[in-house]
Automatic annotation (TrEMBL):
It comes from the Bacteria. Keywords: Hydrolase. PANTHER family: AB HYDROLASE-1 DOMAIN-CONTAINING PROTEIN (PTHR43433:SF5), HYDROLASE, ALPHA/BETA FOLD FAMILY PROTEIN (PTHR43433). This is Alpha/beta hydrolase fold protein. It holds the Pfam family Abhydrolase_1. GO terms for molecular function: hydrolase activity. Residues 140-387 form the AB hydrolase-1 domain. The lineage of its organism: Bacteria, Bacillati, Actinomycetota, Actinomycetes, Propionibacteriales.
Length: 415
């Protein structure tokens, strides 16, 4: 039992350190990571064991009561321990050998995944559709990327899903250097996705759409239900220009202004590109002395390694014009009109700290699809397909295996 609790503790700490160290190393250096223990739980030697586990990971790990000083990071770490929090007293009997083994395991870091993918193109209506394939087993998993996003955010999830067959569809027309002035339209991209799947000829597919890619996936599930074995939407962007604006995220308000401005005054795109690119990927401001703000900033931050990837759609005026035009087309549509009726299983997953899309609107979209399930990942960001690829892979594998959804935990809540 001691080893079970110790292993759970290791895994919870390792997953959090793996996420936070790249995007906010100062937090781990300056702040304690606190495990929130319930009243009445007394630890003796277990507190020293917890501290030594923290030392092995290079952090200050302590226990604390769940009080007003506990922040979002503390609550997330505690959520990942789940009911093991109630058994932390078992750590009192941890042997020196067990602790040494835990320290050795903590030194093993998993390298950033670089999955083996074969990039291909297919001419559809005179335009080149770009996609990648990998793996060889089972019904293919079709990952529909967000508009104008590089594929990098998918790589860790793909690595965890292989050797299952995977198809990654790029919603292109912005990042490519040879893109013509006439940007690919939303209808062309939808036709392209459908044509790629018909070309691959696998019969049915498990669709997984992220952000704006969720809309393409939902549209395909409505139009071609014969192609769809299941539908999963990750942090779906279902904004409609000028509708339900009170639910917009701050990012969506910026996007709406950008789209409207560029659509009406395209000559301003060069100036806007300078301003927008300068704000993308900027690290959160420091929060000296404010643990609440520091914790939320740590969880909502983005790995600086992705800064240039995120800036790519707005790197210059031409790119921004193409990107804004695609978004304007997509967000001019009623998202509820493109949703599939009752049919294959539908899973929607949202990150608690998604600052890019409106989670209330995404939840309403999920509720409008008969039989869909909606999960919220505690501490998840818009990029949790990368940050929490392990958890997303587990939820996908449950869906693909047809097993009953796992019960709600402190980390995953279902509506």
């Amino acid at each position: 039992m001691t080893d079970s609790v110790l292993t759970t503790l290791e895994q919870a700490v390792a997953s959090l350190v793996h996420e936070l160290r790249p995007r906010c190393p100062d937090y781990l250096q300056d702040q304690q990571l606190r495990i929130l223990v319930p009243a009445g739980l007394d630890l003796d030697r277990g507190s020293a064991t917890i501290a030594e586990v923290g030392t092995a990971f290079g952090i200050n790990l302590v226990t604390a009561r769940d009080d007003d000083d506990a922040n979002a990071v503390d609550r997330l770490l505690t959520a990942r321990l789940d009911d093991a929090v109630l058994r932390l007293a078992d750590l009192d009997t941890t042997s020196a050998e067990e602790l040494a083994a835990a320290g050795a395991r903590s030194a093993i870091s998993r390298p950033r995944a670089a999955p083996d993918l074969q990039w291909r193109t297919l001419a559809v209506g005179g335009e080149q559709m770009r996609f990648a394939t990998g793996g060889s087993r089972g019904t293919p998993l079709v990952l529909v990327n967000a508009l104008a996003q590089a594929p990098d955010f998918w790589f860790e999830l793909i690595d965890r899903m292989l050797p299952r067959r995977v198809v990654l569809f790029q919603c292109g027309g912005v990042l490519e250097d040879d893109t013509p002035d006439g940007v690919l339209s939303i209808d062309q991209l939808r036709t392209g996705l459908e044509a790629v799947l018909d070309h691959l000829g696998n019969g049915t597919y498990h669709l997984v759409g992220w952000c704006t890619g969720a809309r393409f996936s939902a549209h395909l599930a409505r139009r071609r239900p014969d192609l769809v074995a299941s539908l999963t939407m990750l942090n779906g962007a279902f904004k409609q220009l000028g509708v339900d604006s009170a639910d917009d995220s701050g990012y969506e308000r910026v996007i709406e202004t950008m789209c409207q401005t560029v659509e009406n005054q395209p000559q301003l795109a060069d100036q806007l590109a300078v301003m927008v690119a300068g704000s993308v990927g900027r690290p959160p401001a420091g929060h000296a002395g404010d643990r609440q703000a520091a914790g939320q900033a740590a969880l909502s931050g983005v790995d600086p390694a992705f800064t240039e990837v995120l800036r790519a759609p707005v790197r210059d005026g031409d790119s921004l014009r193409r990107y804004a035009h695609q978004l304007f087309q997509l967000f001019s549509e009623d998202p509820f009109a493109m949703l599939p009726p009752a049919g294959p299983p539908v899973l929607c997953i949202a990150g608690e700290y998604d600052e890019q899309v409106s989670l209330p609107r995404f939840a309403r979209v999920a509720a409008a699809i008969p039989g869909s399930r909606f999960a919220t990942v505690a501490g998840g960001t818009h990029f949790f397909l990368h940050d929490r690829s392990d958890l997303v892979a587990e939820l996908l594998n449950d869906l693909l295996a047809g097993t009953a959804p796992r019960p709600s935990t402190r980390e995953i809540s279902w509506r």
